């Protein structure tokens, strides 16, 4: 990315962030409050009604286990969904200005990650204030997992935004597919508490590995990223490369379908 493109990328990302709060004096409050309310609802339903529990080796409330997985999932799912719509949402801009189109997708996804990262940090501080044991020395491993998750979101967003220009029904299918992916990911439940024959299938879901890495540092005080972190980053980079190649192949024909 050249200096000019880097400047344009920052401007587009800032514009995306500001657009979330135009006309709302309390927008920054809702940025943090909305996910906290969502966390409270999920925590009540699954810990009180469905009696969900954390792994036996941990002595933390279920809501802390849930929160550590929920925010990264929101970053990925909302980032990819908004990124997949970026080209169609900016159809008028594309037809009038020679803007690098991939920057529209990258800026949308980056804005989502920045906003949810603020909420995630606030929740971690809230857990600490309520006496929930968070191992802050494990932050490097947590951040490494979030970086690779961001790279994965960029790759998926680029690929899906290009395909969605041609297959418009994808816009309606993606939220349902991500909801299914959400429930197949150990966010609301611990893999250790599932029957053995079901728990084994979770290993085929890449988000299972991301959730494990995200929780490893803050809950188990695993300080440095290990081999799994490097594998996740390598896999995410491959997805980014494939997504960028697909986007590059399809983008010259966008105007004919927008």
Any overview of this molecule?
This protein is mainly alpha-helical. It has one domain. Helix content is 72%, strand content 0%. It has 11 helices and no strands. The longest helix is centred in the middle third of the chain and has 29 residues, at 101-129. The radius of gyration is 19 Å and the shape is globular. The two termini are 26 Å apart. The mean pLDDT is 84.
Terminal-residue CA separation = 26 Å
- The topology string of helices and strands comes to HHHHHHHHHHH
Query: What structural class do the secondary elements suggest?
Result: mainly alpha
- Largest β sheet strand count, sense and barrel closure: none
- Low-confidence stretches are none
| Average predicted local confidence, pLDDT | 84
User: Helix count, per DSSP?
Assistant: 11
Q: How much of the sequence is in beta strands? A: under 5%
The radius of gyration over CA amounts to: 19 Å
**Helix proportion range:** over 70%
Shape: globular
Question: How many strand units?
Answer: 0
Number of individual domains: 1
What can be said about this structure in brief?
Helix content is 72%, strand content 0%. It contains 11 helices and no strands. The relative contact order is 0.14.
Write the layout of secondary structure elements.
Blueprint: H1 3-19, H2 27-49, H3 62-84, H4 86-89, H5 91-96, H6 101-129, H7 139-166, H8 170-183, H9 196-199, H10 206-220, H11 227-250
Task: Please supply descriptive tags for the structure shown above.
72% helix, 258 residues, single chain, mainly alpha
